[in-house]
Each structure stands twice: as structure tokens, then as C-alpha cells.
């Protein structure tokens, strides 16, 4: 058995996604693949932050309800007040990042809401109104890398040197631009294969040297094969 009733929709906060999920008792939650994102998650009375992953995350709890807010890559650190690399491959209680009183108040607010997804989104929107703007370079990096540009091309396009690009990427995404580019490329490949392309054509159209290269990167970041991923609902 897997996840039951997963839903997601666009948030009012630039490029973000709100989602809900129920993992039935005895079920095994579907693995969460790296995507360059950070999530704020309500799970049965707790608010936690899921940092940017470099490998598939396998949820261990079943019989739980989840409500999540998935930030557009690179936009969460400004709101959370912590650089993304400190959250890499971690799940952290929000109380470890924000003061206890604030966390308790916000958790109770989501707990008591009839629309918990709406309440969680409101928490983010209110917090965002009180912090500084996200570095405009962030969206440029994501867009350029996701279009298949090389790291060198991205640095030149954004008029920054390689060291500055790497430093800003660590703080925004949790890893350097090369790793982010590979993660985004794997996600493009999975989407292309789900759309019906052969594995060879998927590799060719999404920037891999060949099908073997595609297979290695999928295995590294997803922990399984592309064929097994496509067999999942």
C-alpha cells in the first residue's frame, strides 16, 4: 500500500505549492525525491521543516495526516532565517529554528483550523510580509539551470563569478549549482519518461550523455531505477 489522497495546488506565495497527504495505517509512504525545495510540514500537531534532499527520503510513519507548504527552490531560507545547507537531508522541528512561544502559537493555529492547509499558507504569507525580499539571483539560477544551461553559462549570464554563485547556491538551495542542475535534470527526465518517451530519447532530450548516464543519476538521487519509478502511481 502507498499514499492515499495526495493533493497539491499552487500557493499565493510566488511559485510555492500547498499539499496534503494521508498515509493509511500499515501503508508505506511513497519516497520523496530530491527537488531543490524546502517544505514546512504540519504532521499530527507538530510543525517541522524538511530540508533540501540529496537522496530519496522514505517517510517512516504510517496512519498520519500531513499538510505541507513546498517553497519554490531557494526561497525558504529568507523566511526561515537559516541557510539551506544547514537543513540539507534533515527534518527539523520548527521550534529548533524559531522561538518556542511563536512555534507553539503557530502550531495551535494550524491544529485548530478547519482548513489546515489554508492556515499553514497564511502562516507563511504573514511571515513573508515581515522579512526581506528573496535574493533575485535565486530565480535566475533555477530558471537557467532548469533550461539546461551549464553552471559556467549561468554565472556569466548573471554576472557573478563561480565562487559567488557557489556560495549563494549553498545558502539558497543547500548545495552547489552543479548538484542542483543534476537534480533538476533528473526531475525533467522522470517527467519526460512519464510522458511516454523511450529511455534513450529521454536521456537525449534532457541533457544526459547517454542512457547509462541517465540510469546512474536516477539511481543516485532516487535510490531506484527509472523503470521502477514509472511503475509507481
TrEMBL record:
Q: Say yes or no: keyword Kinase present.
A: no
Answer whether the UniProt record assigns the keyword Transcription regulation to this protein: yes
Tell me the keywords, alphabetical order. DNA-binding, Transcription, Transcription regulation
Could you tell me the superkingdom of the organism this chain comes from?
Bacteria
* Domain HTH araC/xylS-type span(s) in chain numbering: 135-232
Q: Which InterPro entries match?
A: AraC_XylS_family_regulators, DUF6597, HTH_AraC, HTH_AraC-typ_CS
- Name used for this protein in its record: Helix-turn-helix transcriptional regulator
Task: Please tell me the species this chain comes from.
Answer: Nocardia callitridis
Amino acid at each position: 500500500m502507498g499514499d492515499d489522497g495526495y493533493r497539491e495546488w499552487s500557493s499565493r506565495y510566488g511559485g510555492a505549492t500547498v499539499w496534503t497527504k494521508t498515509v493509511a495505517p500499515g501503508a508505506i509512504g511513497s519516497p520523496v525525491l530530491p527537488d531543490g525545495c524546502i517544505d514546512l510540514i504540519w504532521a499530527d500537531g507538530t510543525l517541522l521543516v524538511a530540508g533540501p534532499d540529496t537522496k530519496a527520503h522514505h517517510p517512516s510513519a504510517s496512519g498520519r495526516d500531513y499538510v505541507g507548504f513546498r517553497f519554490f527552490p531557494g526561497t525558504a531560507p529568507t523566511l526561515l532565517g537559516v541557510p539551506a545547507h544547514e537543513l540539507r537531508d534533515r527534518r527539523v522541528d520548527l521550534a529548533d529554528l524559531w522561538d518556542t512561544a511563536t512555534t507553539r502559537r503557530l502550531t495551535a493555529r494550524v491544529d485548530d483550523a478547519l482548513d489546515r492547509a489554508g492556515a499553514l499558507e497564511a502562516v507563511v504569507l504573514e511571515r513573508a510580509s515581515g522579512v526581506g525580499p528573496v535574493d533575485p539571483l535565486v530565480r535566475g539560477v533555477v530558471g537557467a539551470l532548469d533550461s539546461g544551461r551549464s553552471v559556467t553559462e549561468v554565472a556569466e549570464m548573471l554576472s557573478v563569478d563561480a565562487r559567488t554563485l557557489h556560495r549563494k547556491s549553498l545558502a539558497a538551495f543547500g548545495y552547489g549549482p552543479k548538484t542542483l542542475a543534476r537534480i533538476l535534470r533528473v526531475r525533467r527526465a522522470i517527467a519526460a519518461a512519464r510522458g511516454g518517451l523511450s529511455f534513450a530519447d529521454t536521456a537525449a532530450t534532457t541533457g544526459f550523455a547517454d542512457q547509462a548516464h541517465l540510469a546512474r543519476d536516477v539511481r543516485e538521487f532516487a535510490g531506484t531505477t527509472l523503470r521502477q519509478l514509472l511503475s509507481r502511481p
